[in-house]
Amino acid sequence: MSKLEDKLSASLKPARSKPTPVAKPASRPTTKDRAPVPREQAPAPAGDKDDVTRPLHPRRVWPD
Amino acid sequence: MAAWVLALANLKGGCGKTTLALNLAAGLARRDSVGLVDADPQGAMRHWVAWGDEENDASGDRDLPRVLAGGADPLGAIARAARNHERVIVDCPPSLDMAVTRRVLERARAVLIPVLPSPLDLWASAETVAVVRQARQANPELKAWLLVNQAEPGSALSRAMGAALAGLDLPALGCVVRRRAAFRAAAVEGVSVYQLGFRGREAAREIDQVIRAITEQE
Fold first, then answer.
1. To the nearest 10°, the Cα dihedral for B103, B4, B80, B68?
2. Which positions ≥6 away from A12 have C-beta within 8 Å?
3. DSSP count for chain B of H helices, then E strands
4. Which CATH architecture best describes the domain B4-215?
5. Can you give the residue ranges of every domain in chain B?
6. Of A2, A4, A11, the CB nearest to B123
7. Is A1 in contact with B122 (Cβ distance < 8 A)?
8. What is the ipTM of this complex?
9. Which H or E run contains B89?
10. Does residue B2 sit at the A interface (CB-CB below 8 Å)?
């Protein structure tokens, strides 16, 4: 057996040891499936993030 | 007598299922009554034949069997084709419709799995072999073969594929189909390689070999 044949055959091992494919992939939840988030728990709008308590840029620390 | 149903299946797309299905059907139709079922929602086979009807005179010299669309109900389409023909060829969909492929294989007499000479196709075929194994639980008589498709004789990888396929649990058919412009030219013209005359001679010879290898083991 040539080197290439050996390599090709050996490369099959992970594919063969994979679990047997299931009939249908589980359906992903869509945005419709998600429960609505109450207004008070909803993340703050982007405009509110840049308030005075949050620096606009990370502080740069120089090594001594 | 129940029709002989052959499925072309591989969970990986682009391995030549449609091209082989259509040309095998055309070859078999030279001696038997053949129905084609397009179970692939992409509908490439229906397009191929419809294009052939448009491009060539529909009443002219044609050897392409009629295609039944099986997208929504492949088993129903197979049953309808089986009532009217001795042989039925089914073009199975790629991986998104794994359940469809398994149901078709539970109904088929045989399955041919085209594998391109590439590691990616080899690895993907292991999953298809697993689906064959599942289908055999309901259909123990299902015959299955691997077939190296689009082989390039000058390529070391193509030559190595034969030995590599032995690592899968299904037999290889014993012949290969080479990568040939004639198969693509046939699609361009909406015909099979048999209708290409001299240009399709070698491709048609290979399809005949595949038909012989399969029907000898019926």
1. 80
2. B122, B123, B126, B164, B167, B168
3. 8, 7
4. 3-Layer(aba) Sandwich (3.40)
5. 4-215
6. A11
7. no
8. 0.71
9. strand B87-91
10. no
Strand partners, B84: none
**In B29-69, alpha helices (H):** 44-55
Closest partner residue to B160 among A2, A18, A22, by Cβ? A2
Which amino acid, residue A47? Answer: G
**Distance to chain A for B127, nearest Cα, Å:** 7
CB B74 within 8 A of CB B37: yes
Q: Which residue has the tokens 């290409």?
A: B196
A26 contacts chain B (CB < 8 A)? no
Residues of B in contact with A11 (CB under 8 A): 119, 122-123
Give me the pLDDT at residue B88, please. Answer: 96
Structure-block tokens of residue B208: 């005949």
Does the beta-carbon distance from A9 to B163 stay under 8 Å?
yes
> CA-nearest residue of chain B to A26?
B96
- Over the stretch B159-210, which tens digit does the pLDDT of each residue have? 999 889 998 989 999 999 999 999 999 999 889 999 999 999 999 999 999 9
| Span B33-43, average pLDDT | 91
Q: Assess contact for B22 and B64: CB atoms under 8 A.
A: yes
Rounded CA separation B167/A4 (Å):
14
Residues of B in contact with A20 (CB under 8 A): 130, 133-134
Give alpha helix (H) positions in A1-64. Answer: 3-16, 46-49
Structure tokens at B80: 């309808």
